[in-house]
């Protein structure tokens, strides 16, 4: 069965460049981002890990931990981290887990249950291990975003979505198309106009069901 938004993220325990990790314990009361890759020492993935390495301080400001998932072992990950730092200028100071068993790739429906790693494999053998997951402190999946191997991920978009998720989490608010931090947000239909005004201040009514307010701090 496919994972859906608001499903509990499947828990797992596995080895990583930061030692043994159990996902739910590692997340704690933070948000978390898992970003998965079909193999170490591949060109697009190296640029992506480099982008994350540079953004670690931005994720930390948002109480968000990041974890790389790659279908290789910890020894290879540690060697690859040197390339990532050489390319990006920032150390990859976040866990990269060993998924040579395909445990996580299968738990997260990126590979079928019968998948295996053949001798002499190439990245194409695990090409579908290319999904980003944002997970909340409640351990529920808030976003899934899958990319083909030939397309580098847009981490500015991932940061934008993370900001939107955190802004609206547990509030009767939503963000409109192309929203960026600082712009107005949409009031949920659970509130009538008076309730919206009382809770958020001035309400800009575009349509009876489309009402904007200033984003709360």
Automatic annotation (TrEMBL):
Thioredoxin domain ranges (all copies): 3-167
InterPro entries (UniProt xref): AhpC/TSA, Peroxiredoxin, Peroxiredoxin_AhpC-typ, Peroxiredoxin_C, PRX_1cys, Thioredoxin-like_sf, Thioredoxin_domain
Keywords from the UniProt entry: Antioxidant, Oxidoreductase, Peroxidase, Redox-active center
A GO biological process held by the record: hydrogen peroxide catabolic process
GO cellular component, one term: cytosol
Function (record text): Thiol-specific peroxidase that catalyzes the reduction of hydrogen peroxide and organic hydroperoxides to water and alcohols, respectively. Plays a role in cell protection against oxidative stress by detoxifying peroxides.
Protein name: Thioredoxin peroxidase
Organism: Paenalcaligenes hominis
